[in-house]
Amino acid sequence: MRTPRFLIVLAAAATAAGAGVVALPAQAAVPAECAPDPWEPDGDFGFSAGVAAPVTVGSTVTRAICQAPNPFPRTTAGQDFDFFRFTTTGGKSYTGEITAAGSALGLGGQGGLQIGGLYRVNADGSGTSINNVTMANSFERFTTDVLPAGEYGFLTYTPDNQVYTGNVLDIRTVSGADGAYSVKVSESAVSVPTVASVTLRSNSVRYGSTVTGTVTMSGPAPEGGMFLFSESSSRLTANPSSPYLPAGARTVAFTVTTTSQRPSRDMQVTISFNTTTGTPKSVVLTVRR
């Protein structure tokens, strides 16, 4: 899963997400006329406990996304970021998920409502972004690693936009009951698996070719699945894909695309994979000239 710069990455990755069908939350919880609720950040997109709505682990909270092309009063942009906070007992992993969303939020589709961005809440109420969360493919759910006892936060937002008169691309308007949604936080003793091994079908290939490989995990992927992070000691020479494991999967295939430019000599490139925690596992690929 940070600040909007991180969220841009999430939005780009979500283009492959499929549409989902969800129920509309109770309209009684929706702010009238999209008025700010008690936890609105008012344009401050950095995490703070003062603008984060509390969520009791095991329960559901309903809120509303309110956004328009023109900035709201006291805000710096037309998008609405909602922050949440929850308390952990320690030694367990946690799942935050969007359980329902209004029709204007496009849950499960490109540009739709997303959840993520895990923070550790500091003593002064500020938040420190931590990379201890695994996102589901559609960004409707995240699963944390095993967390120490303490208070943590996360956020929801929608990057959805549309084309207005004169081919002007701008943030779409979301208000009223169509912008309502519900979020649930639950805990589990099951931890997110780590990468156990990485293998290639061939450890030596000619430049311009593609080679496949397999990542084996220490256990099954959690509900909602998980992304893996890939690294290359030289992406210009050999660029690995970043695979996604569906729920329950223990292995996943990946591809490495090598440069189409003939190198001056044979090149050895280290290809690595990892989750948000654990030790990266790697394999060496020789790209022949």
Computed CA radius of gyration, to the nearest angstrom: 21 Å
Give the spatial strand order of the biggest sheet: 1-3-9-5-6
The largest sheet is: 5 strands, mixed
Average pLDDT, to the nearest integer?
A: 77
Poorly predicted segments? 1-32, 72-76
Strands, total number: 22
Write the element-wise H/E pattern from the N-terminal end onward: HEEEEEEEEEEEEEEEEEEEEEE
Write down the domain tally: 2
Total count of helical runs of at least 4 residues: 1
Keywords: Signal
Organism: Geodermatophilus ruber
Protein name: Ig-like domain (Group 3)
Signal peptide: 1-28
Structure description:
The strands form 6 sheets. A 5-stranded mixed β-sheet has the order 1-3-9-5-6. It is mainly beta and 289 residues long. The radius of gyration is 21 Å and the shape is globular. The longest helix is centred in the first third of the chain and has 10 residues, at 4-13. Helix content is 3%, strand content 41%. It contains 1 helix and 22 strands. The protein folds into 2 domains: 4-188, no CATH class; 195-288, Immunoglobulins (Immunoglobulin-like), CATH 2.60.40.10. Residues 1-28 form the signal peptide. Keywords: Signal.
Topology record:
Layout: H1 4-13, E1 52-54, E2 60-64, E3 82-88, E4 93-101, E5 114-121, E6 127-129, E7 133-135, E8 141-144, E9 150-157, E10 161-164, E11 168-171, E12 180-188, E13 195-200, E14 204-206, E15 210-217, E16 226-227, E17 229-232, E18 238-240, E19 244-245, E20 251-258, E21 267-274, E22 281-288
